Amino acid sequence: MYWILTVLGCGAIALFLFSWFQLQAWGSHPFVMVVLSAIFSVFLLNNLGRWWILSSMKRPRAIPARPGWKVAAVTTFVPGIEPLELLEHSVKALVALDYPHDTWVLDEGNDDRVKQLCAAAGAIHFSRKHYPHYQTEVGIFRKASKHGNYNAWLHELGFERYEIMAAFDPDHVPDRDFLSKVLGYFDDPRIGYVQAPQAYFNQQASFIARGAAEETYDFYSSVQMSSYGMGFPLIIGCHNTHRLQALAECGGFAAHDADDLLLTLFYHKSGWQGVYVPDVLARGLAPVDWPTYLNQQRRWTRSVLDIKLRIAPLVARNLSPTTKVLNMLHGLNYVHRSIVLPIAMILVALMLMLGTMPDVATVETMVRGGFTLIMLHIWGRCRQLFYLNQKLEGGVHWRARLLQFAKWPYQLAAVADVLVNRQFSYLTTPKTTGPSRPSFVLWPHLITLGVVGLAWGIGLAIHETIPVTVQLCAGAIVVVTMGLLVTELKWSVRPFAK
User: Which of 8, 27, 61, 123 is deepest in the core (most CB within 10 A)?
Assistant: First the structure.
C-alpha cells in the first residue's frame, strides 16, 4: 500500500508540475511565477521528505532490564524560574521508579527549601554554587546552563559512581516503570543512549498548550521511528538515558543551547548508537501562553539552525548520505514556514497594489492541483496511523496551524540571529503553574496588518477592480492575524494538574 500511494502521489505531483511550467503566465508575470514556484517547491519537498522516510520506520524489540546496573535518575532545578511544587511532584516520581537507583537533584541555587525537599523525598542534593571551577562563562561548565549543571555533577560524582544516567527536566514526571523499559537496551555494548518521546500532561490548559502538543505528534511518531531505522534517533533534552562510558567519551553534555541535538552528533561521530522507544514513558509541561511559547520557539530555532549550518557540516562528516539528508530535512522543517509565510503575504500585498495576478487557474492546473492536494492529504492521514496514540492525536491539527502562523516573525528573527552569529545568554524556559497575564508579544503581526491594509487601499485607489482571489487571500490574512491579536487582550489558563 505504501508503494502504491507513493506512485500515485509522485505521479500527481509530476503531472501538476508539468502543467504548471507550461502556463502562459510565465511570460506575463515571470517574477510572481518564480516566487510561487519556490513556495510550492518548499511545500512539496517537505511533504515528500516526510513520506519518503516512512519506509525506514523501525520499532525496537522490548528487552527486560537485567539487575545490577548502577543507575542515577537526575533532574536539574533553577530557583525562581521553576516552581518548587513542580520539582516536588517530579522528585517523588523519580524516587518511586521501580528499578534500584539513586535520585539526584542538581540545584543551581543551593536552596535550603530544595535541600529539605530532597531529605523528605529520599533524593540526594547537589549544587555547584560553591565550585568556581564548575561555573565558567563558556564551555561545558557554563554557568546558569542546564548542560553546565549536569556536567558539574558528572565530573564531580556521576562518572565515577554510576554506569547509567536517566536525565529529566524538573517538569517531566516519569512512569514508575521508566527505567525497566529502557535499561534492557544497554545490554548491547554498542548502545550509548536510549530516547523516549516527549509528551505533555497539561494539553488542555490552553489552545496554545494543545497546539504545541499537536506540533510534536508527527515528529515523535514516524520521524523518530524513521530516524531510529536509519541509525540516527535524535536525543531530546526533556528526558533521556545515557551509558556514562559513552557520555564521558563525548565529553559530557554538549556546550550548546541545543546540547541534545549536538550530543546526538557527537555520539555518532564516536561510533555509539541510539535506540528510540516509541512509548510515552514520561510527561511534562507544554507552554501555555504566548510569551513562553514564542520565546521558546525562537530559542529552539536559533539553536537548531546554529548546529545545522555552523557545526553539523564539520561534526557529521562520517554520517551516511541518508542520515545527512534526514539531518537537512529536520532543519528545513524548522524554518520553512517562517520563510514561506512572509514571502506569501508580501506576494499578496504586491498583487493587491498591482491589481492583477497570474492566470494560473486553468482547468488543467486546477484538476491536477486538486488531485495533488488529495494525495498529500491521504499521505498525511497515513502518517497518522503511526501516531503514538492515534485516537487522541489524530485529526485536523488546526491549533498547530495557528501557532505556526503566529510564530513566523520569531522564527524569522532566529534565522537572522544565526546568519549574523548574534550571541545570547542561556535561558531556561519558565514553567507556568498558575494563570498567565495578558501580553503583547504578537505585536509584529501589527506590521502584517499595516502592510496588507496599505497595499489593499493603494490597490483600490489605483485600480477599478482587484481580482477576487487576491482579495480573498488578503481577507484571510487579516482575519487570522486579528484573531491572534485578540487572544492577547484577555487570556488565562488553568494551573498544572496531574
Answer: 123
Q: What is the pLDDT of residue 496?
A: 43
Cell representation of residue 111? 536552596
Q: Which three cell numbers, joined as nine digits, stand for 370?
A: 486538486
- How many CB atoms are closer than 10 A to CB 255? 18
In order, the DSSP letters of 262-301 are: HHHHHHHHTT-EEEE--S--EEBPPP-SHHHHHHHHHHHH
- Domains of the chain, first to last: 29-362+398-498 (3.90.550.10)
Note whether 349 and 455 are within 8 A (CB).
Answer: yes
Q: Determine which helix (DSSP H) or strand (DSSP E) holds 70, and give its type and residue range.
A: none
Q: Is residue 471's pLDDT more than 80?
A: yes
Q: How far is it between the farthest Cα atoms of the chain?
A: 81
* DSSP H or E stretch at residue 354: helix 321-354
Q: For residue 405, give the nearest of 286, 485, 323 by alpha carbon.
A: 485
pLDDT in tens, 53-74: 999 999 999 999 999 999 999 9
Distance of alpha carbon 414 from alpha carbon 7, whole angstroms: 37
* CB of 230 closer than 8 Å to CB of 326: yes
pLDDT band at 323 (very low <50, low <70, confident <90, very high): low
Query: What pTM, to 2 d.p., does this model score?
Result: 0.90
